[in-house]
Amino acid sequence: MKRSRTFTAALMLLGSSFFAACASSSVATDTDSAGGEPGKNAAAPSPPAAPSPAAGTQEGDWAAIEKLEGEAKALAKTSGCTDAAQCRSGPVGSRGCGGPRYYLPYCAATTDSAALFRKLDEIAAAEKAYNAKYQIGSTCEMRLPPALAITGGACAAQ
Predict the structure, then answer these.
(1) Residue 114 above 70 pLDDT?
(2) DSSP per residue, 92-149
């Protein structure tokens, strides 16, 4: 009976690690306009910022990866291509079992590809270290780059 409980606990720990490794990030965009007359088109005051997770903790280390991911997304310009053949995608992250978490579409004509791939390499290295540090596992399927198309005037994964 004790062995069964230990096995169940190990499975629960592995499952929670899996979800942490597969968590998707979101990048907020700043849509407030600077300047203008006070009181006209003024944005509502934002709530107080939550304290950021401490560096060296699992939450803080993941927040650092998400910050890098946001920087990569800012480098990846999706507009400017007129044909899907001009679109590319770059691998983002490093799952516990290897390979990227997803691919980021971009327009090769308007994106500094060298800068983008330096940032993507930085993300992969940081996530690989994160996975080793926190013993993160994942599924081991191979994720292939998506088919790309021009959607609404921008490169996008199909």
Answers:
(1) yes
(2) E---TTSS-SEEEEEETTTS-HHHHHHHHHHHHHHHHHHHHHTT-----PPPPPPPEE
**Tokens 């596992």 belong to residue:** 137
Rounded-to-integer distance, Cα 61 and Cα 57, Å:
6
State the average pLDDT over residues 110-132. 98
**Per residue in 32-66, pLDDT tens?**
333 333 333 444 555 566 667 888 899 999 999 99
Query: Which residue range is the domain that position 152 belongs to?
Result: 1-21+76-158
Number of domains within the chain: 1
54 belongs to a structural domain: no
Triad 113, 22, 124: Cα angle to 5°: 35
Which tokens belong to 55? 């560096």
Within a domain: 51: no
